[in-house]
Design goal:
Helix content is 45%, strand content 13%. It has 254 residues and is of the alpha+beta class.
Length: 254
């Protein structure tokens, strides 16, 4: 009866026969617990281990990521500042005076594609104020002069204007022929940046600054870069850039 009511008595009796067994079992269980704790500590160790000579308040991984991000930012910054380098390069210059310099676009999107840049440091259209009105007018005049000097005999049509959200730092006026005959014109973004409202006419920008003292860029401009490809001359819808380029030949002056 005792055995049926208290089944563990058997275990107790066995342990009394071998006093060292309970101690052995307890030690074994204790050893397993220590092993689990050690495993957990080792799993956590890679995220907290410090490299020799590193800051003890930081782990090794985040500084590496921070360095990578910093390097990427510096690289991007250098690329976006490219115009400032090009405008100082005599090989790129086609005209300059005390206020502006004109350079050839490094990746022209047409047969004729120049950029008019002020020597004054103006990061973008957002930085333009009423004080820059005469400068904007001068930039437009110089753009027309360059067309006359370098493409005067051409029957090509030209447009002068600014990108609403430029990819390069330092305000610049595009002077571009409307043939768009260039291997550098490769995708929908390139096309729509010159053939939608994303491209702000130079005279419209001048009038905006004259009336409001600043340039206002509407929201959602980036969505214009995703629009379908339409011919800028006849508005025909084209499915791809290669097919658009073939179509454009129909509109080239003869």
């Amino acid at each position: 009866l005792v055995n049926e009511l208290y089944p563990y008595i058997i275990e107790f009796e066995e342990e009394t026969k071998n006093p060292g067994l309970e101690t052995h079992r307890k030690r074994k269980r204790s050893g397993n617990s220590d092993s689990v704790e050690r495993d957990a500590a080792q799993e956590a160790e890679p995220s907290t281990r410090l490299e020799p000579g590193s800051n003890p308040s930081q782990c090794s991984v985040p500084p590496k990521k921070e360095k990578d991000a910093s390097t990427k930012k510096e690289s991007l910054g250098h690329w976006s500042q490219g115009l400032k380098i090009s405008m100082e390069d005599p090989k790129m210059q086609v005209y300059k005076d005390e206020q502006v310099v004109v350079i050839k676009d490094k990746y022209p999107k047409a047969r004729h594609h120049w950029l008019v840049l002020p020597w004054a440091s103006i990061s973008s259209l957002k930085a333009v104020t009423g004080e820059h009105l005469e400068l904007l007018r001068h930039m437009h005049t110089v753009g027309e002069k360059v067309i006359a000097d370098f493409a005067g005999s051409s029957k090509l049509r030209f447009r002068l204007g600014y990108h609403a959200i430029p990819s390069m730092s330092h305000v610049h006026l595009h002077v571009i022929s409307q043939d768009f005959d260039s291997p550098c014109l490769k995708n929908k973004k390139h096309w729509n940046s010159f053939n939608t409202e994303y491209f702000l006419e130079s005279q419209a920008v001048i009038e905006m600054v004259q009336e409001a003292g600043r340039v206002t860029v509407q929201d959602g401009m980036c969505e214009l870069l995703k629009l379908p490809l339409h011919c800028h001359e006849c508005q025909q819808l084209l499915p791809s850039i290669p097919q658009l380029k073939v179509h454009l030949r129909k509109h080239w002056p003869k």
